[in-house]
Amino acid sequence: MADFILFGTEGCHLCEEAEELLVAAGLDFTSRDIMANEQWQADYGLLIPVLWHAPSQKQLNWPFDSLQLKAFSIAIDPSECQSARRT
């Protein structure tokens, strides 16, 4: 199971944009529709899309771009910074 979860809902164009960013960044993630769970609706209804990192319990709220996404992933796992420097 992926450590990253993208919370969104069907028909959300911002969610689609966020998903495209995650795919372009090569991030391993799963998508969850907030309509499937009342708690998700309460937590994320006004914030979607939201990228959640389960192990750290940190989230990145929209709007975000590729640079903010990279900074978020480095803040969660500083070893990502080392591999980014090598490439």
Description:
The protein is α+β, with helices and mostly antiparallel strands and 87 residues long. The protein has helices spanning 13-24, 38-44, 66-76, 79-86, and strands spanning 4-8, 29-33, 50-53, 58-61. It has a four-stranded mixed sheet with strand order 2-1-3-4, with helices on one face. It is globular.
Ranges where pLDDT stays below 50 over 5 or more residues in a row are 81-87
Shape: globular
What order do the SSEs take from the amino end to the carboxyl end, as H and E?
A: EHEHEEHH
What percentage of amino acids are in beta strands? Answer: 15-25%
Percent of residues in helices comes to 40-55%
Strand order of the largest sheet: 2-1-3-4
Task: Give the distance, in angstroms, between the N- and C-terminal Cα atoms.
Answer: 26 Å
Largest β-sheet summary: 4 strands, mixed
Secondary structural class? alpha+beta
Specify Rg, calculated over alpha carbons.
Answer: 13 Å
Number of helices: 4
Number of strands: 4
- Provide mean pLDDT, rounded: 89
Sequence-ordered SSE layout with sheet pairings:
Elements: E1 4-8, H1 13-24, E2 29-33, H2 38-44, E3 50-53, E4 58-61, H3 66-76, H4 79-86
Parallel strand pairs: 1-2
Antiparallel strand pairs: 1-3, 3-4
